[in-house]
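Table 4 source record.
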Amino acid sequence: MADELLGQVRGKRAFICDMDGVIYHGNRLLPGVKEFVAWLQREGKQFLFLTNSSERSPLDLERKLANLGIQVGAEHYYTSALATAGFLASQHPGGTAYVIGETGLTNALYDVGFSMNDTNPDYVVIGETRSYSYERLAKAVQLVSRGARLIGTNPDISGPVEDGIVPATGALIAPIELATGKKAYFIGKPNPLMMRHALKRLGCRREEAVIIGDRMDTDIIAGIESDMETVLVLTGVTSRADLPRFPYAPRLVLDGVGQIVP
């Protein structure tokens, strides 16, 4: 049965792959990734690296993988920052935002015509950042209390790094939700909105695509809710022992993406 499912996965036209915990951990490339990417390119597959991280731009991600020995153009990356910018531009063209995040997020917002505003913005937007501080948190709480709408690039509570885990957007935005009583709207996985954007970029239908990820609560549920084939890899935050805790299951569980290569 597993061999049959693996054959079906290999036959898909398009591959949507998470990055952290699937392609790399921090600055360490995971086993089998070079072979997997070479197979995608050799077979002429459509593929997109889809990450809930909002810190880096597609160009930054291209350079990061190049440093790890993988040559993949910037057009193959889609981030929660880009998805967030696209959503806000469709909701409020030419809007303003107060942002707690890195340049990948602020540049994405600038690119769709948004401007930064720390007085009376339309939105308070939170993404992963290393410059989180009490002062910025207090400012965000004040602005949301005055009516700014609260947006999170993704709901992840934590993310994997080389030596463990670090807090992600869901953890950073929680104090603002608690202090204001306002709930954030999250754009990244498992929001099907991001999956639809990814399929549109690939130019394919959901039946032709598979999503590969290491998280049950974002990657796998996103695929299930988008009615796509799902593959869980055990190179990230989820172990086999974790699977019974969830009321849903991936179609296929692999030790890593290298197993997809025939």
